Amino acid sequence: MDISKDLIRGHTDTIILNILSQGDSYGYQVSKSIRRLSTQQYELNEATLYTAFRRLEKSGDISSYWGDESQGGRRKYYTLTKQGQQHVEMARNEWTFAKRIISRLISGRIDDYD
Amino acid sequence: MTSVEMEIRTRLDIIFSKYTPNTQLTELKEELVADLLEAYQDFSKTDQSHDEALDDAFDQLGDIESILKELSQSESSNRKQEDTTTKRPYVDISNQGVHIGNLHINKKGVSLGDDIVLDSQNKKVQFGNWLHVDRDGARVGGQYYQFNNDLNSETDEDNYTNNENQHFNTPHWAKAHHRFTIPISSKTFSINYKEASINFYSNDKTDLITIDEFFSRDNPRYFSNVEENNDKIIIKQGDYPMLFHVRAKIYIGLPQTFSTGKIEVTNQSGNLYVKNLVADTFNIQLSAGTLDGQTVQANTANWNISSGTIKATHVNINQANIHVKLGAINIEHAIIEHVGTQVDLGSVRIDDFTGSGNFNINSGTIRLRINKLTNDLKLTSNSGDIRLTAPDNQDFNFAFAAQASKVSLAHENVHFTKNFDGYKSGFIGDNPIFTIDGQAMAGSVKIY
């Protein structure tokens, strides 16, 4: 089963923030981390990823710097800002709260709550 | 600069050439060079040829046109935004709240600088890194205290067979568990569900099929019925209420040694998970749902999926007929002696394919990495590309046609009988036995 795109779309930014909260990273590595974290069940192609990086950089959640690789193209690393750290924590809390409610709304039985 | 880097840059130049250059686009290009180079190196580990790895690296990039368009148009919008946020007086008291320097008090809560101290929206209190309190618990320094005041503090994930000793866990929502067994026989086992998630696994029995049904409501009317006629044993989902939803999860255990088993599964809505299945016949009919397979072995298989994808690893089937109307096929490690594949809308990707047969794709691409041919292979794609990795140590005949695009074949020891841009035929090696026939109506054909 593939995870529905509609279901996960709103979480793209949080997914990226979560990965960056565990260390600075660059595009290709982030996309690999997403594959690993989802045990190969979800994949964000790089085009989507780069768009999200731009958006997050604009909103001030992440900033970027160039690595000092001497050959083979310099990598652009992304790092979480303080604001980004707060946002990822906020988003995690929101999610823990929401997932319980959503799960009940989707599969709960009304008579259990009478 | 290595030649690979040069090629990546050249390909990017072509993509970028449609847009007016600016610093943001140049930066993105640099970023892409490094990422594509690493992707190329990763693909080189499995791909045989340089071209193939390069194509795969660019493939996974996805559609970057929209970001290029956006960046080429938004030259200086970055700076404008920064200006507006800094224009706030030092002390600002209004209906919106109180702001003194970087202390903000408003309906969102209280915050100092970037630190949120009291967050009313998310109902939490936080002082720097030291104290965090929210509705789930409190963390003070290194200690975490969980609040346990919730109605049912269940975890919501469906625990799907992770434990080695246990084949499944009771879903948290289950209100009824119905378990029954059926002795194995030479008749066809026909499993019919309307709306359920069905899981096949191999049980520890020698002559019993075990069936565990979980329902989100406790009513025996919902349990399956078993009927038997001359050639079939039919397991049929019980009553299904019209007015409300009953969740059903079914676990079917087959003996590992039941290699003569004839199994057919019908499910109107819901996914099918198959793990370690050994059978003689394994037929599937899904109306809306996905087939997720891990280690599936059968003599014959007829898989029909109206809307849903097939995702599988380690498939070993003698004769398979696969028809997907809407959805993709994605298989890793497949040995299918003879396959007939029809996909109306969706792509096919098989990594490590041993076999032969037909692939007929109406709208979508075909990507095959062929390990070995067991007979002729025929591929047709109406609107997508065909990309093939030729077998490593096997010679073959070929005939490739791209009606509206190009055929490219980068291989050693090729003998052409015809060699045009859109059509190539001939053979590879000295001793070809089987033939690969590929036709793309609108897309290109590439062989690595």
TrEMBL record, chain A:
Superkingdom assignment: Bacteria
Listed Pfam families: PadR
InterPro entries, alphabetized: Metal_resp_DNA-bind_regulator (IPR052509), Tscrpt_reg_PadR_N (IPR005149), WH-like_DNA-bd_sf (IPR036388), WH_DNA-bd_sf (IPR036390)
Domain (Transcription regulator PadR N-terminal): residue spans on this chain: 16-88
Record-linked PANTHER family: DNA-BINDING PROTEIN YIZB-RELATED (PTHR33169:SF25), PADR-FAMILY TRANSCRIPTIONAL REGULATOR (PTHR33169)
Protein name, as recorded: PadR family transcriptional regulator
Organism in which the protein naturally occurs: Leuconostoc litchii
Automatic annotation (TrEMBL), chain B:
Chain positions covered by the region annotation Disordered: 70-89
Biased composition regions of type Basic and acidic residues, renumbered to the chain: 77-89
Organism: Leuconostoc litchii
Domain (DUF4097): residue spans on this chain: 190-415
Protein name from the UniProt record: DUF4097 domain-containing protein
